[in-house]
Amino acid sequence: MPKPGSFCVHIAARGLLGPLLEELGERIIAVRGRAVLATATGSAQPFWAQTTWLNPQWIPISSIGDAARKLAGQQRNWLAHLDNASGLNRRTTLIQEALPHVSARLLTFGDAAPTAPLGAFLLWTPDLMLASASTSSPFADGEVHFAENRDEPPGRAYLKLWEAFTIFGCRPAPGELCIELGAAPGSWTWVLAQCGARVFSLDKAPLAEHIAKLQNVEHCLGSGFALTPDCVGRIDWLFSDMICYPQRLLALIRQWIDAKTMRRALCTIKFQSQQDHSLIAEFAAIPGSQIRHLSCNKHELTWFYQECRP
Fold it and tell me: Which residues form the Ribosomal RNA methyltransferase FtsJ domain (predicted)?
């Protein structure tokens, strides 16, 4: 067993274990379902990890009650990570039920992310627990679940923005100017308009009719790549959820950053069957950047940028 302090536990997004294993490479120590034990490096959380257990430790247990007492002796809030292939889910669930209740209510957009420490644990064997009192995400397994709006947005892509704004702790303020490239049918445009921002959207296809009628939305038919920074002047936010090659998105982003005309940006980096780790590193190397895999991202990552001021 690796010694405490020498490794971390990274939880892969559902259905995306492969990209995480590729990213970690030779650092991998062991894999248990979606939980990947890897050598600690002190660097940032892997891009393809949904959450990371920061200080995992091995805890021998003699019973369900003993496990609950040992966890509760460290802190109040714990949530189990279940592994269907382990055959230990029933025992793990009984330990969870013996611990203080942790609310798992659906989040309402606009609510701040929880701030209370959240620990995570799993059973490695029936009498050995792997647990971490601190994790990189305040949400169970790093997954954010919202009370959804199934009536107004013309698709579920709006959940990406809800989650991104919650995770990054930043969203457009009323009156700020947002440009969205490749906006149709308008799920992201709807979110931005609901924030009170002024939205200029661009796509070869029209927005959904009820989105196009929103008072603070202006839509133009055309390619998202056709708009250049010199055409619009200073903006507060640039958004893109366009389906395009990551190399092309990176070139577009650099064009806007070099022009020094945008304060913030949030874009989806979409991959096909293979992800280019060196290209992801180029996005991450841009000063002011953060990259996360959101709960509702599929084979894609979300890139957030905030202008660095001297």
Answer: 156-213
Structural domain range at position 212: 158-306
Cα–Cα distance between 54 and 47 in angstroms, integer?
15
Q: Is the pTM of this model over 0.90?
A: yes
Task: Tell me if 178 is assigned to some domain.
Answer: yes
Q: What type of residue sits at position 300?
A: E
pLDDT at 259 over 70: yes
Return d(Cα 33, Cα 60) in angstroms, integer.
21
Using 50, 70 and 90 to split pLDDT, how confident is the model at 180? very high
How far is residue 301's CA from residue 310's CA, in Å, rounded to a whole number? 28
> Do 264 and 130 share a domain, yes or no?
no
> pLDDT at residue 66 above 80?
yes
State whether residue 16 is helix, strand or coil. coil
Q: Are residues 166 and 98 in the same domain?
A: no
